[in-house]
């Protein structure tokens, strides 16, 4: 009976594909979004890169594309007039726009793309959070979010802090490291990070691990911080912005001169399992707790946290970004019970160039093929050279010239559009091929309307052929050097 059913599925796949042509959309550094029609072939002399025989089973069901809401993005957007501003938001968030984002991330307290440091309660010793407020957010992040909600009222949201209020930390300051140029933290406080530990491994990130939790590990501080998360969720709920997921810390393994907080494995386990998880369950049971954001490739470190018997009862999923991508396949294989999400696309160094587009295109393939059902971009909008207040120039999808008041949709924007414009929530990943030595990443999806979506890149200096077997037919085309490509079936 099972064999008979599989045969029927196979025959139906063959006949559905035989009736279809494809639209081919390609982009390269000099030309974006070129469209043409192509037909499937009945045979090929080249071995397929991918074969799709049964499209009923999938590797994952994709859930959401999203981006971060940051203060400097809001400032950049407000350089423009009302009509231009709304055009950008529509392209990012409207179901009829280019990128169709359905998810937003924002930070609890300031992040590195805030105007400057702030938290929702900088009153030292306010354990009952009497002075907690989101007044700053009401003039920056919340108007930004509400503008997006006008074009998609069903956006979901998740949060993480970069730093707790400074009085909750052992160094009494928002950053982890001092910087003579970019912050006012005393250089003497840097001793907290490593003390006399000389254990350095240049093959991993970070090459040296903190020996201390920067969050004060006393019960009243830990409980106050868990309550702080809940007050933040409640305050945003009152603003019509529901938060559905939280992560305890952005990049616990980046020891930064901008807002940050270093955690040890034991501190991570203690706060998440003994304080944050039960407090959320009591006050906001509708909110999921994920472990993240994981930005280290020290496999043994994350394994130490996840293998602790307290953890499985506390978290529903895990979020990865930056160096964490390198250990994602190993963690997912060992801990298949969790949901996996990508939490921040890599932002580069302010180049805004085609190389950045290829990099983003490739890591999107990598995260999706390794089981991430959500993907969050970092800054969607920045002005000029993309520099923050702590000296880091970063890329964004849209760049605004503050003097000319002009808008540039960057190469990276089109890299994202090749995926997000077609792969909508509910699309099923059928098969994939990572870039490998050929520098030729490929993904094959079945869209929510039954269409096939094939996304392929070529990062070599010469054209390459891709061959995808769909039932008894072949998509067989040569794609140009350094090109991004999407193929969509049509009746």
Structural overview:
- By secondary structure, this protein is of the alpha/beta class.
- It has eleven helices and 21 strands.
- The protein has helices at 2-18, 71-77, 82-93, 141-151, 191-194, 219-238, 265-283, 299-306, 328-334, 354-369, 411-420; strands spanning 21-28, 31-39, 50-52, 60-61, 64-68, 103-108, 156-161, 243-247, 288-294, 317-321, 339-344, 374-379, 381-383, 398-401, 406-409, 428-433, 442-446, 452-458, 464-470, 473-479, 483-490.
- The strands form four sheets. An eight-stranded parallel beta sheet has the order 11-10-9-8-7-6-5-12. A seven-stranded antiparallel beta sheet has the order 2-1-21-18-17-16-4, covered by helices on one side. The chain has a three-stranded mixed beta sheet with strand order 3-19-20.
- A hairpin with an 8-residue loop joins strand 16 (428-433) and strand 17 (442-446).
- Helix 6 (219-238) crosses helix 7.
- The model is unreliable at 4-19 (pLDDT under 50).
Structural class: alpha/beta
The first-to-last residue Cα distance is 31 Å
Q: Can you count the helices? A: 11
Share of residues in helices? 25-40%
* Arrangement of strands in the largest sheet: 11-10-9-8-7-6-5-12
The number of E-state strands comes to 21
Look at the structure and give the mean pLDDT: 95
> What is the rounded Rg?
23 Å
**Unreliable segments (pLDDT under 50, ≥5 consecutive)?**
4-19
Major beta sheet, specifics?
A: 8 strands, parallel
Write down the overall geometry.
globular
Beta-strand proportion: 15-25%
């Amino acid at each position: 009976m099972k064999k008979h059913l599989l045969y029927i599925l196979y025959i139906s796949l063959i006949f559905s594909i035989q009736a279809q042509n494809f639209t081919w959309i390609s982009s390269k550094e000099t030309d974006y979004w070129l469209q043409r029609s192509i037909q499937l072939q009945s045979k090929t002399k080249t071995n397929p890169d991918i074969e799709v025989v049964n499209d009923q089973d999938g590797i994952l069901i994709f859930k959401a594309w999203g981006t971060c809401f940051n203060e400097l993005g809001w400032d950049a957007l407000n350089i423009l007039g009302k009509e231009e501003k709304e055009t950008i938001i529509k392209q990012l968030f409207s179901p009829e726009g280019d990128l169709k984002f359905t998810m937003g991330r924002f930070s609890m307290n300031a992040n590195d793309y805030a105007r400057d440091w702030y938290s929702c309660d900088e009153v030292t010793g306010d354990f009952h959070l009497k002075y907690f407020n989101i007044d700053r957010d009401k003039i920056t992040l919340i108007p930004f979010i509400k503008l997006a909600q006008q074009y998609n009222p069903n956006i979901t949201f998740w949060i993480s802090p970069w730093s707790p209020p400074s009085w909750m930390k052992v160094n009494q300051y928002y950053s982890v490291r001092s910087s003579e140029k970019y912050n006012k933290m005393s250089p003497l406080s840097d001793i907290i990070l490593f003390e006399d530990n000389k254990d350095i491994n240049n093959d991993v990130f970070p090459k040296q691990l903190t020996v201390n939790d920067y969050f004060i590990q006393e019960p009243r501080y830990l409980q106050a911080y868990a309550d702080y998360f809940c007050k933040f969720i409640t305050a945003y709920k009152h603003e019509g912005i529901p938060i559905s997921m939280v992560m305890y810390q952005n990049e616990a393994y980046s020891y930064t001169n901008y807002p940050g907080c270093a955690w040890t494995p034991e501190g991570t386990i203690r706060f998440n399992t003994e304080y944050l998880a039960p407090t959320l369950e009591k006050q906001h049971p509708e909110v999921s707790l994920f472990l993240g954001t994981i930005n280290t490739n020290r496999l043994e470190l994350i394994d130490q946290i996840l293998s602790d018997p307290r953890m499985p009862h506390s978290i529903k999923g895990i979020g990865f970004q930056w160096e964490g991508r390198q250990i994602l396949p190993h963690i997912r294989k060992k801990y298949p019970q969790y949901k996996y999400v990508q939490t921040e696309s890599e932002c580069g160094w302010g180049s805004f160039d085609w190389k950045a587009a290829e990099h983003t295109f490739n890591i999107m393939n990598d995260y999706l093929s390794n089981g991430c059902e959500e993907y969050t971009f970092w800054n969607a909008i920045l002005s000029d050279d993309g520099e923050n207040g702590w000296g880091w120039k970063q890329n964004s999808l849209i760049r605004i010239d503050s003097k000319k008041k002009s808008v540039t949709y960057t190469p990276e924007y089109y890299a994202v559009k090749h995926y997000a414009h077609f792969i909508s929530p509910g699309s099923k990943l059928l098969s994939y091929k990572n870039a490998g030595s050929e520098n030729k990443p490929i993904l094959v999806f079945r869209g929510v309307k039954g269409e096939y979506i094939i996304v392929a890149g070529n990062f070599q200096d010469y054209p390459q052929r891709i061959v995808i077997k769909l039932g008894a037919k072949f998509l067989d085309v040569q794609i140009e050097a350094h090109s991004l490509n999407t193929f969509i079936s049509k009746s």
